[in-house]
Amino acid sequence: MKKIKNIIFDLGGVILNIDYHLTSKAFVKLGILNFDELYSQAQQNNVFNDFETGRTGGEEFIEYIRQFIPSKTKEEIEAAWNAMLLDLPAERIELLKKISANYRIFLLSNTNEIHIEYFTKYVNQKFGINLFESLFENHYYSNQIGYRKPNAEAFNYVMSKNNLNPAETLFIDDSKQHIEGAKKVKLNTYLLKKGEDISALFLDKSLLKHHL
Question: Could you tell me the pTM of the whole model?
Fold first, then answer.
């Protein structure tokens, strides 16, 4: 591997702890018994794709969900949708600060208007600052740039905006399909396995230890 100078991080499942099943359970509890058929981490229908690429906004998304559970409020639907978002360990923030002293680091996340509002409020309350603006040179959300992983356009957008050489750039994600998409644009990649923390990648496994 050529010397890595840049690192692009995924957010959910890599930096922010998440559990997709909690959102599924929450919607089942609200009355959408087939929610897993409407949405899954691996493959989403057009409504969710449009939401994550900014073609539709939060209000339109809520109305789409409400057709299945018309008696439920906006707040109940948002709470169920946000149930997958868990915590952000402080030690992970410290690790990112250390990494940023030696690398140009970026964030690329498939996300949406409702989740952004929720996790931005969470990190501001927990850490007192907008971490994503202070930690990363630039952060990119799919609904704001109009492209989502694993499509090449998402990766090319980040590389073009920041003049990144893919041979010198590492992409870290917990989704195999996103990793495969990154490989197609010649990025170096690392698939973070379930239960594996990024600290292991940078310290225990020594993949980049000699650069820190």
Answer: 0.92
